[in-house]
Amino acid sequence: MNLCQQNANSKEAKMHNSCQLEKEFINKWVQGLQICNSSSKKMNLLERKKKIKLSADIAIASAKNLTTSWSKAIISEATKDEQNMTLVKNVCGPESKFMYAHQKVTSHKRTTSKKILKKCYGVHRKMKKMEPCRGSNLATCIAKRLVKKRTQVLKRLVPGGELMDEYSVIKEALDYILSLKVQVDVMKNLVNVTTSLS
User: Fold this and answer.
1) Under 8 Å between Cβ of 63 and 24
2) What kind and span of H or E run contains 7?
3) Is the Cα dihedral 27, 93, 75, 49 positive or negative?
């Protein structure tokens, strides 16, 4: 098999996975929207917007079968609020992997530990930053700082990214971006259909 055929097969497999993810997302999102809509509480526009976003986030995380750290982080964050438990249980399924309560505790402990460490070593880091780069290492030093800053930004953007190393956060970010693209494509198609029907 030559390189062109391998690329074609790879693209076909990715397209199939994307279509499969899209179908799974649509099914789970519709389920989530039905649950949100069945609520007896009257919602204003802002509350409705939040519920639509929450159900879309839970649906895309569940469509990934909670195989990624970002999907687990989304579900974990959603289950912190007791009001969202019904939505999560129905969209993910009662036998789903999201039931790991210890993940929330571990995540909280790590975050707390990191905060303590940052306070303890904050002064040491500031002193280290103030040291100028020397000689031929200037370009390397600047490049390392840029990579570190951009990785920190990426960690804040990816759900659960704060607890990941650099390699994992890049891998998770790529997967998260592809999933968000599927989510946006479905929403765009929905808007196009509703406007054409109006």
Assistant:
1) yes
2) helix 3-38
3) positive
Task: Return d(Cα 87, Cα 24) in angstroms, integer.
Answer: 16
pTM over 0.85: no
Query: Quick one: tokens of 111?
Result: 């975050």
Token output for 168: 């994992």
Query: Which residue stretches of 39-165 are H helix?
Result: 45-63, 69-78, 85-92, 101-130, 138-157
Name the residue type at position 31. Q
For the stretch 147-184, pLDDT in tens is 999 999 999 999 999 989 888 999 999 999 999 999 99
Q: What is the pLDDT of residues 112-144, one digit of tens each?
A: 556 555 655 554 555 455 556 666 688 888 888
User: Got the DSSP string for 17-59?
Assistant: HHHHHHHHHHHHHHHHHHHHHH-SS---HHHHHHHHHHHHHHH
Q: Are 50 and 105 in contact (CB under 8 A)?
A: no
First to last CA, the chain: 50
What count of other Cβ atoms lies within 10 Å of the Cβ of residue 6?
10
Please give the angle made by the CA atoms of 191, 37 and 45, to the nearest 5 degrees. Answer: 65
